[in-house]
Amino acid sequence: MYAACFAFVVACGPSEFPGEEVPEPAPKFDLAAIQQPLAADCTSTYTLTKDVAQSNLSGAQGSWSCIYKLTVPSGVAGLTFKTTGGTGDVDLYVRYGLTPDATAYDHRSMGTTNEDQITIEPSQSGTYYVRLYGYGAYSGASLTATYATPCTSSTIIDMGRTYSNINTPQGLFSCGYMITIPSGANSVTFTTAGGTGNADLYVRRSDWPRADAYDCRSTGYSNSESCTLYYPTAGTYYIKLYGTSASSGAQLLVNMDRPYTAPVLVRGQPYVDVSMAVGEQRRFEIDMPWGKNNVQFFTSGGTGYANLYVKFEQAPTLYNYDCKVDGISTSTNCSMGWGKTGRYYVLVEAKHTPITGMRIGVNYTDYYN
């Protein structure tokens, strides 16, 4: 019986039994460590340029390539050196500040072809030196260095408008976005969605957010993030995304909940048959969506004299306004042109005579939907 079992194991091998692990291939032998450099090895030094390949590289078995150096600025992420293409088996060695060799290197990649890659995260500013070793003879290989740099541009954004195609490298913050939040808001919600990858959302009042300095953040596992500030202090808020992993094609949207303090104007639905005593004032408000043009506030119809005052994001007075029309009847029109995204405040005053039967409204066109 035991002989039969033994014969079965030998014939079938361990892989026939469920749950048995198949041994991994043995690691590549460190040939460079025991082989003397060749007399014909290149000792010249060449400068690498970010994202520009050194191409058509070749070498004999046991040879070391020329030396390549890359100067890396501060604040970058995802520093990567890679070899691709051609035939044979080349290995990749990288060292900070000095030329690498078989026994002195910071990083190396020993694949079984010309496809090798080293990513250094975090990296430091300064000069990295790179050399290739011919584990076997190789030809037609390319060497490339790349890294991501932080974005320094910023965009002032509108409430209620979606901003698309936001890209964020891994380990870095995205370009910046700024939005002004007026006083009196119940809440402001910042939302990101869409695209691929994993970008976290950071918001801060009065300055750019950092990983350790923010007023609101969301750190999920995709580009879908949301954070809400309740009763926020008025001011400028700064928004950035952080690439937990590389992210592309994300969208950003900011929405605000703010109570009205006066009757609300609606396009195409004017208040009608309005009557006012001499000297009486009426106030109205409207939150103008993004992308509206030919914005006009008006009074019309009925009898009397009406004065019209309009101001953006602040209640107008008889002496502080963005637009004023002194009417000689009830027909007035304040033309604001391209509408700003936010709240408009309107004041109508019955001047000199009572007003009866008047209409008060707003019109605009949809330049963007």
UniProtKB/TrEMBL annotation:
Residues 67-134, 177-243 form the Peptidase C-terminal archaeal/bacterial domain. It comes from the Bacteria. GO terms for molecular function: peptidase activity. InterPro entries: Peptidase_C_arc/bac (IPR007280). One of its GO terms (biological process) is proteolysis. Keywords: Hydrolase, Protease. Pfam families: PPC. This is Vibriolysin, extracellular zinc protease. It comes from Hyalangium minutum.
